[in-house]
Specification:
The protein has 293 residues and is of the alpha/beta class. Helices cover 40% and strands 16% of the residues. It has a single domain, classed as Rossmann fold, CATH 3.40.50. The longest helix has 22 residues.
């Protein structure tokens, strides 16, 4: 099986490129300048050339705070661009696995979010990704939307990598402790996408495999708990000790509002696809070890 993934230097794209081949899957990353989501006409030719059996749509405008002042670009990439990828997959007759976000929710619920809970994004990024979901699901092809969350990995830019960098020069870091989510390793996302792609390719007529699914790490966390767990692993590896000091989000103002609870419930993914994403504590150890090797 061959998977084409959009974006070349993204966390999920790089994780797929690493995890695909050992699982017997070729992964072709297709990104700028050949495929530019700002240029919808570029999408179909670039993806066709990859001759893939399935497409993973991972490229996105992911700068949550920057999006607040750049809504036009965020919507072009995350909504129109996602729609162009979905139209290309339909034209090519292959299934699409599209990544979306926990930030489609406003965080008002006091339990993990299920796929059919009402969406109400708090910011431009979440709104643009929600518009992308709608574009993908209405494109007329075979598509599954996988909402993921709090992605970290040895690659690209992410919270865990930032904490590892801060711990090198600080003994204490103030971190938001009143936002809850489910941190997810890009490597675990890649494993799940490979398994899901196999099912979508082998059972093209099964409508249960299409629609929206929550694909996130198995355990809850706050940003502060994730930071402390990162620092604990650094200390265990002989690095200087660093402490995460809990603060409320009100003391760390950002351009974009973030949900207080964006925990994603993975029960549907398990029931339909048989996929259970590992808890983040186990996967975090691998990422921290690789970042400090
Ligand atoms: N990161 C998170 O915490 C998080 C949380 C929830 C959901 N998600 C979703 O998960 C998916 C993967 O996230 P990630 O963390 O892997 O993203 P990432 O590391 O920020 O990478 C984004 C990728 O998108 C590409 N891209 C941006 N604009 C583009 C354009 N106009 N045309 C083509 N490619 C473009 C970038 O290309 P270049 O390589 O050229 O820069 C990069 O490869 C995204 O759909 C994201 O919305 C992420």
């Amino acid at each position: 099986m061959r998977i084409a993934v959009t974006g070349t230097a993204g966390q999920v794209a790089l994780a797929l490129a690493e995890r695909g081949p050992p699982a017997g899957v070729d992964v072709i990353a297709v990104g700028r300048p050949g495929l530019d989501l700002m240029r919808p006409d570029s999408v179909l030719p670039a993806l066709r050339a990859a001759e893939a059996d399935a497409i993973v749509s991972a490229a996105a405008y992911t700068a949550v705070d920057q999006a607040e002042g750049d809504a036009a670009t965020a919507f072009s990439v995350n909504a129109a661009g996602a729609g162009a990828v979905a139209a290309a997959a339909r034209e090519m007759g292959v299934p699409l696995l599209h990544l979306s976000t926990d930030y489609v929710f406003d965080g008002a619920l006091d339990r993990p979010y299920r796929e059919d809970d009402p969406t109400a994004p708090l910011g431009v990024y979440g709104a643009s990704k929600l518009a992308g979901e709608e574009a993908v699901l209405s494109a007329g092809g075979r598509a599954a939307v996988f909402r993921t969350a709090w992605v970290y990995s040895p690659f690209g830019r992410n919270f865990v990598k930032t904490m590892v960098g801060l711990a090198a020069s600080r003994s204490e870091v103030s971190v938001v402790a009143d936002q809850q989510g489910r941190p997810t390793s890009a490597l675990d996302i890649a494993d799940a996408l490979v398994a899901a792609a196999r099912r979508l390719v082998s059972a093209p007529q099964d409508p249960a495999l299409q629609g929206v699914f929550h694909l996130a790490g198995g355990d809850d966390a706050t940003w502060c708990a994730l930071a402390q767990a990162t620092f604990d692993r650094l200390a265990a590896a002989g690095r200087p000790h660093c402490v995460a000091r809990p603060i409320p989000a009100s003391q760390y103002p950002t351009p974009a509002r973030r949900p207080a609870n964006s925990r994603l419930d993975g029960a549907k993914l398990k029931a339909v696809y048989g996929i259970e994403v590992p808890g983040w504590r186990a996967s975090l150890s691998e990422t921290v070890a690789r970042l400090t090797a």
